[in-house]
Description:
The chain has helices spanning 440-445, 487-492; strands spanning 39-40, 53-57, 60-64, 71-77, 89-93, 101-113, 116-126, 135-141, 150-156, 166-173, 176-185, 188-198, 201-202, 207-210, 222-232, 235-242, 251-257, 268-270, 285-294, 301-308, 320-328, 334-335, 346-347, 367-371, 374-382, 385-390, 400-404, 412-416, 422-427, 430-435, 448-452, 460-464, 471-475, 478-482, 495-499. With 502 residues, it is mainly β. The longest helix has 6 residues, at 440-445. It starts with 38 loop residues before the first strand and ends with a strand. The model is unreliable at 3-33 (pLDDT under 50).
Amino acid sequence: MSRLQTLLATVQSGLWLIGGLAILGIVYQPAVAQTPDGSFHNPLNTVEGADPWLTYYDGYYYLATTTGTSQLYMQKSATLSGLKVAKQELIYAETEPSRCCNMWAPEFHLLDGPDGKRWYFYYTAGTNGTLDNQHSHVLESAGTDPMGPYTYKARIFDPSNDGYSIDGSILQLNDKLYFLFSSWTGDYQILYIAPMSNPWTISGPRVRLTRSEYDWERVGLNVTEGPVALQHDDKTFIVYSASFCATADYKLGMLTYNGGDPLDTQSWVKSPKPVFERSDENGVYGPGHNGFFKSPDGTEDWIVYHANEGPNDGCTGKRTTRVQKFTWNADGTPNFGTPVSLTTDIANPSGDTGNDPLPQRAPAPAYRFAAFDDPTKFINQFTGRGKVSPMGKPEEDFEFILREGLADPKAVSFESKSKPNWFMINRSGNIWVAQFDGTDAFREDASWWQKPGLASADDVSFEAYSQAGAYLFHQKNLLNVKVPESDADKAAATFIMTEVTN
Ligand code: AHR
């Protein structure tokens, strides 16, 4: 059976809460979309948020997610919700053909290396054009900074069973190190455990941890993958993802260590029911491939996982990163609860004083803006430069969601429909569409005062928040900002705003 993995397709349509819009689209009354202080909403990203690994270390949160490319990135933020706008820092790029591509499932663990504590950054990678050569690899940091720099350390494999190996993770138990990973054997993608002599070397044959046995582990394909260790008091668990990642029924299962030899399959007892799964009521589908982290003060346990907003969004770049706190049952097992909706106010982790830099998300209309002086042309973003052109494809490049102003809720900001969290921004008089970076300067340059059209009161014009008196304006198919000096300028600064109804 070929390994059906359709990955990292197009971006997802990010939708933000906005208030009702007056029928004529002239007056925009943004609803208050801010989340209560000290809380935030999922997701932490709007695209490419699959297989997340998140940890809190030395005053900062660090997040890495599957890229599907030849590069690995890390985000760093002092607050959890700040990860939404934290810069994606490149920490590694690969050109070696045998491991160049399809980078998945990043995990970074602080372990004892020959020169002291080092971050070992585990990931899956393979060769260009196929997923059949996916193997487990690991980088080693130069010091104890999770941001690196990193150097390539090794491909991790079991010499007695070298082959497809994905979703590598680390278990430290009874003062020994084990490698957890997933691999195909026949029609089953099976979880394995193997001993390690150091953070980059398997020192003995792999042993099966588990494979799909229950129907809830067999939806789409017989898959068990994404293993991750969880230890609490004197108990050890391995939480894993079950069923095909492209289905809404991708979910979490759990193995409990019963005290025997960790390299004996019988030492791991499977929970007969899933421990975390879809919630149609909350609009969360295919939750899985998780990690765990602690609150800044170490008192709370949190789970990080990916999920889709739609049941058919598949195993693609539409998967986004979500987090939520979990508790412990009286018997010492974890209680992950139900994946929360994207409009749930999530209280910050204990010791985290951040505020959500982006308001909550909910279905919201998008709009097209035709040039008043040439209604066959529409505002769009073409590789980032703001333009005015005849309607083209993808149509979402010609559509913008009016969000409450990033600098002032009474203003507006144009969020690209095709690039969630990217906004129309005034850069020294030229209009670009750029990714929100959380800075005040960006907020000001991406905010506009919506006004009745300078050439037609039934239409609209937009005065630059950061350049009083200057208006959004098109000239020679480019979007700029200008102080209107003539009737022709006023016509070029007036737009016909229509809601996208498809
Ligand atoms: O998301 C990419 C891969 O798809 C993950 O590594 C694996 O868990 C899933 O099969």
